[in-house]
Amino acid sequence: MQPYLQYILLLGAVVIVGALAMPRKKNESIPEQTVQNMETALEQFMENMEKDNAELASLVAKSQQEAKLEAQRKELRIAELERKCEQLAEQLRHSSDTSAGAARQTAHAEPKPGAAVADSVREVPVPAGTPEAAPQSDSIQTRYSDLFRLYGQGKSIEAISKKLGMNKGEVQLIIQLAKQEDAAHA
Questions:
Q1: Residue 40: how many CA atoms within 13 Å on its side-chain side?
Q2: Three-state SS letters, the chain
Q3: 157 near 172, Cβ under 8 Å?
Q4: Quick one: pLDDT at residue 29?
Q5: Where is this region: Disordered (predicted)?
Q6: Nearest to 160, CA basis, from 175, 181, 143, 182
Q7: How far apart are CA 21 and CA 24, in angstroms?
Q8: What is the average pLDDT score of the chain?
Q9: Mean pLDDT in residue range 126-133
């Protein structure tokens, strides 16, 4: 045999003898009591998770039901407010028709003997929606010339309201009334 084969065989034999001579480690298995404790803890954890999940599901269902009821209440409230708004609009139309009729009667009334003509014709306030509301000589654009000058310059409603110290809603209303006035005269 060749010398390197002898060394390899000798080395293999030493390794085998050394392995047999070494003490073996005991297989330390996990005690069965510990395994049972872990299984019990895991089961309790799962039960708690299922209980929490059921509570969460009931909370979500309750929240959805409350949201649905709240939405229904709001829809009823909106319907009621719309109905009231329509009633008020009808009352406004009725009162404006009545005011317009009263203004026409006052304008056509005969002056009392001995009284000045100016005293017999009283000014009756006329709502903005009637044709008598805006006589040609005193149009809304002449009454609010500063507002329409700024509007004509392309200023925003917010800028106009700040500049003139008016509310934005008031500025919008005046502009809309002017448009209606222009459409009525066209």
A1: 6
A2: CCHHHHHHHHHHHHHHHHHHHCCCCCCCCCCHHHHHHHHHHHHHHHHHHHHHHHHHHHHHHHHHHHHHHHHHHHHHHHHHHHHHHHHHHHHHHHHHHHHHHHHHHHHHCCCCCCCCHHHHCCCCCCCCCCHHHCCHHHCHHHHCHHHHHHHHCCCCHHHHHHHHCCCHHHHHHHHHHHHHHHHHHC
A3: yes
A4: 64
A5: 89-118
A6: 175
A7: 9
A8: 80
A9: 48
- Cα dihedral 33/39/45/51 (nearest 10): -120
Asked if pLDDT for residue 109 goes beyond 60, the answer is no
Q: Which of 61-70, 106-115, 134-143, 168-177 has the lowest mean pLDDT?
A: 106-115
The answer to whether 107 touches 128, Cβ cutoff 8 Å, is no
Determine the pLDDT at residue 1: 54
Q: CA 58 to CA 65: how far, in whole Å?
A: 11
Instruction: Give the C-alpha distances (Å, rounded to integers) separating 31 from 24, 27, 38, 40, 45.
Output: 20, 11, 11, 15, 22
Name the residue ranges covered by the structural domains of the chain: 44-108, 135-186
Residue 172 and residue 159: Cα distance in Å, rounded? 12
Cβ count within 10 A of residue 150: 19
Average pLDDT over residues 144-166: 93
Q: What is the pLDDT of residue 32?
A: 83
